[in-house]
Amino acid sequence: MESVTIQAVVIGSVTYSDSSRVVKVLTKETGVIPIWVRTGKKSKKALWHPLSVVELSGFTRKQSGGLANFKEASRCLPANNLLNDAKRSSVAFFIAEVLDKSLEDEVPLPEVFNLMIDIINLIELETSVSNLHIFFMSRLVDALGLMPEEYDRINMGAVNSLNLDTGEWSEINISLSAKDHYLNIKLASLLMAISGMNFEQLQGMWLTKADKKELLLGMVMFVQLHHSGLREIKSYDVLETIFAT
Prior knowledge:
Elements: E1 4-17, E2 20-27, E3 31-38, E4 53-59, E5 72-75, H1 80-84, H2 86-102, H3 110-125, H4 132-143, E6 161-163, E7 168-170, E8 182-184, H5 185-195, H6 199-203, H7 209-225, H8 235-244
Antiparallel strand pairs: 1-2, 1-4, 2-3, 4-5, 6-7, 6-8
């Protein structure tokens, strides 16, 4: 089997033994796939931190659904700030977990891969990353083709929310919950607006803590309902705690 060189974004890992782990990565060509990584004494563990962008040379994979192998791995993008700043690391862990628990394996998503390169550069280079997870989620909704159409204010009558199960506008006026998958019209409109902003413009906006939380979790729910099904994002609580300090 011919080997190639590819770029990949680390989104998760599971320890397999004392000297190896299975790492999930997002690739431009194949989407999310698992790779076999040896973790001996000489291995560079920081290389496999969530949202590390790595170049894998000598990359091979015998069959679809199986573990991929590689000969050498090196970092493509710098990660000095990401690795040494708790807020940047918490954003990276959150984003990686969202991807890991929301995207199906082996579905090529080049738009999402390109988005991740942009987001990782922002994590490393921006002065503040306080709203970057919100910016990312809005862009992810757009990259996955889920962004709702503008509602017709004249012909649609009363619109109070976005039905996250269908992606359609609704007259129902209830709060977002695990049972009720509706995002109120104000936050749904903000979801659409953010996708057309750059990160600096979003940083200039002011949102209450409650609105930030509902918008963020609503966007995660929206993506998962249309891809993996609802799964808990455990890193969210850590993210919220760190940004509260």
